[in-house]
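Hi both,

Apologies for the delay on this - the queue was longer than expected. I finally got the adenosine-5'-triphosphate-bound model through. Below you'll find the protein sequence and the ligand SMILES exactly as submitted, and right after that the structure tokens for the full complex including the ligand.
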Amino acid sequence: MSEKARLQARGVSVGYGDTVVIDGLDLDVLDGTVTALIGPNGCGKSTLLRTLARLLSPRKGQVLLDGRRIDSYPTREVATVLGMLPQAPVAPDGLTVADLVARGRHPHQSWYRQWSRDDEAAVAEALEWTGVAEIAERRLDTLSGGQRQRAWISMALAQGTEVLLLDEPTTFLDLAHQVDVLDLIERLHTERGRTVVVVLHDLNLAARYAGRLIAMRSGRIVADGRPDEVLTEGLLRSVFDLDARVVTDPVAGTPMVVPVGRRHRSTDPSVAATR
Ligand SMILES: Nc1ncnc2c1ncn2[C@@H]1O[C@H](COP(=O)(O)OP(=O)(O)OP(=O)(O)O)[C@@H](O)[C@H]1O
Ligand SMILES: [Mg+2]
């Protein structure tokens, strides 16, 4: 695996108003890898992703793209390397799926380079890959939450960037479609060598699909490594305040989190199994 990192954070501090959310964070997004960001609500995952995508400016430190400050590049140039799917994306009224996905090609166009066959092909492929080709002419506001989510992912794909930052791309999806989206990410990684950073709340799916898990709490990285190194019962307690067992996923062999919860807290699992 390549240890090169086109995208890096160096001593990044970022926040909103008087509040500092992330303080002095360092991160190398290794090229050609899939990294999942995990952590409780409000710990700063979206803030970190937005900072990496240059949508937020650090107060201290910097984000580097190919070793150069990301804010020193023209916007269009960044958008040809780096695509971001926000947690709650908003589209103008009346937009169709095809319109939305075509917008992914905007960074590739200019006054001297209009809509081309490459753009057409990229849009058709992105619609196909995400299974929204049949609903391409539907308006986004008439779709189910899951269909809309897939349309946005399709737009991010059409952009054709080497690095994709995806903030909870599986929210609103039923389990089968969650697996579809993660399989898609896997294909982007294995067949196209893309680099993906994805925020996921489903720890079991995160452990299956990401080679590297980064656990955050209160704006800090508290664990960073392979899923089997990061997803431990101790970490779940310290990061999520969650009492859970970690067993082996019978299908993937990766760690699988089984929460205990109030109802089963006092029950010895060996007793429960024989009752
Ligand atoms: N636009 C904003 N203005 C002010 N505070 C914000 C803003 N966006 C986020 N915050 C605050 O920053 C902190 C980190 O938020 P962030 O959205 O990064 O969390 P997160 O880890 O993505 O959470 P979730 O899992 O709920 O999406 C939270 O305390 C949140 O309330
Ligand atoms: Mg978030």
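Main takeaway for now: Residues 45-46, 87, 167 surround magnesium ion (ligand 2) (CB under 6 Å).

I'll put the files on the shared drive as well.

H.
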